[in-house]
Amino acid sequence: MAQSAAPATGAPAIVPISAKALAPWAVFVGILALVLLYFVGAEQGATALISGEGVHEWVHDGRHLLGFPCH
């Protein structure tokens, strides 16, 4: 016989999340994505916020993976 170690309690309760509660997190994730896209795609040359080649070397493979030219 197949028996479960945990007793069946029924379906888990689904708690709806309102758009008002989700909006700040959506804005935060959107800004974070834009900053990451900037560093991968444009952080070199005339638009560089950080001098040197450090950031370029850290995101070099990601840059090519996403199709940004860098050479």
Query: Which class best fits the helix and strand makeup?
Result: mainly alpha
CA-based gyration radius: 23 Å
Low-confidence stretches: none
Helix-strand topology string: HHH
Count every helix, treating DSSP H or I runs of 4 or more residues as helices.
Answer: 3
- Kindly state the number of beta strands: 0
Q: Helices and strands in order, then pairings?
A:
Layout: H1 19-41, H2 54-58, H3 60-65
Question: Explain this structure to me?
Answer:
The chain is built from three helices and no strands. It has 71 residues and is an all-alpha fold. It starts with 18 loop residues before the first helix and ends in a 6-residue tail after the last helix. The mean pLDDT is 80.
Short summary:
Keywords: Membrane, Transmembrane, Transmembrane helix. The protein has 71 residues and is mainly alpha-helical. It has three helices and no strands.
